[in-house]
């Protein structure tokens, strides 16, 4: 039964939560900027930022005001109508990232799933029956089954087989491996890479490696798909980490700090990748596509 005590003083344990985490014995009750306060009054510097999420900190007055304004105006509509705010956000992100259009979703894994679907459409359009996407050792792309299959983590995958096919894992930052793709090369349609790997430690791809990948993508008509879910939204001194390199991606995926804690993801596309979806080919309750684009 629900306890009638006010939410900020009510404590239970994790008995009713699926046991997927082993949390620290701390409850946070307040946050301001980059500081958190636990319910026993201790202040903590929020160096984890909700796992690369709260780039703008906690309880910023402007963000609070924007949320309150919207909740007083209108809640959810649906993807059967135009959504002005979504159009504005799409335009803003496309200008910042030099991309053509956006598909919004709820999480990073979903943004990457969207990218994967675009890669497969791109491949099928070229007559490739079993399209392959290059992924990297040490990569983390999310926990849906397809993204788990693109992620190099035996622990995260354990017990969830069979995995989704269609990925070719190469050693991160290894130029030689790119020269030795062999028979696989004819089926490759895209590369999915974090320019800066997050979950396997801060591992930065070398500019030479990214340039070579980018050249191979244009020479072979593969999509260059950058997972900027952890590295994007101002975490490297530019809006997106790829802007520190000389790259022109076909697809960028975003989430985490995009919403500062509000669950939102986005897949941005440019050029040929931006016209692969057609009405009805992809969607979800909260995605709100503008079907006329
Ligand atoms: C690089 C990268 N891609 C994808 C994801 C998955 O994002 P989400 O947890 O929002 O599904 C993460 C999450 O840590 C990530 O770091």
Automatic annotation (TrEMBL):
InterPro entries: Aminotrans_3, Aminotrans_3_PPA_site, Class-III_PLP-dep_AT, PyrdxlP-dep_Trfase, PyrdxlP-dep_Trfase_major
Transferase among keywords: yes
Alphabetized Pfam families for the sequence: Aminotran_3 (PF00202)
One example GO MF annotation: identical protein binding
CDD domains linked to this entry: OAT_like
Protein keywords: Aminotransferase, Pyridoxal phosphate, Transferase
Keyword Ribosomal protein carried by entry: no
Ranges in coiled-coil conformation: none
Highest taxon in the source lineage: Bacteria
Required cofactor names: pyridoxal 5'-phosphate
Descriptive protein name: Acetylornithine and succinylornithine aminotransferase family protein
Organism from which the protein derives: Oleispira antarctica RB-8
Taxonomic lineage: Bacteria, Pseudomonadati, Pseudomonadota, Gammaproteobacteria, Oceanospirillales
């Amino acid at each position: 039964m629900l306890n009638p005590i006010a939410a900020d003083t009510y404590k239970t344990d994790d008995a009713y939560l699926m046991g997927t985490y082993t949390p620290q014995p701390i409850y946070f009750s307040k946050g301001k900027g980059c500081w958190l306060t636990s319910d026993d009054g201790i202040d903590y510097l929020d160096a984890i930022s909700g796992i690369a999420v709260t780039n703008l900190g906690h309880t910023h007055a402007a963000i609070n005001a924007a949320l309150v304004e919207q909740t007083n105006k209108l809640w959810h509509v649906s993807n059967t109508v135009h959504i002005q705010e979504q159009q504005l956000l799409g335009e803003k992100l496309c200008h910042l990232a030099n991309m053509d259009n956006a598909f919004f979703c709820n999480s990073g894994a979903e943004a990457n799933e969207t990218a994967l679907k675009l890669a497969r459409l791109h491949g099928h359009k070229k007559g490739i029956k079993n399209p392959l996407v290059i992924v990297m050792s040490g990569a983390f792309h999310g926990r849906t089954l397809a993204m788990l299959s693109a992620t190099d983590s035996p622990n995260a995958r354990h017990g969830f087989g069979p995995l989704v096919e269609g990925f070719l894992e190469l050693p991160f930052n290894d130029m030689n491996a790119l020269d030795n793709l062999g028979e696989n090369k004819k089926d490759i349609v895209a590369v999915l890479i974090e320019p800066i790997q997050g979950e396997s430690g801060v591992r930065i791809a070398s500019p030479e490696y990214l340039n070579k990948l980018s050249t191979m993508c244009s020479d072979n008509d593969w999509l260059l798909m950058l997972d900027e879910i952890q590295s994007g939204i101002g975490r490297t001194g530019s809006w997106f980490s790829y802007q520190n390199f000389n790259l022109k991606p076909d697809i960028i995926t975003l989430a985490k700090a995009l919403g500062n804690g509000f669950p939102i993801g986005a897949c941005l596309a440019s050029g040929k990748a931006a016209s692969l979806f057609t009405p009805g080919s992809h969607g979800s309750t909260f995605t709100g596509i503008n079907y006329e684009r």
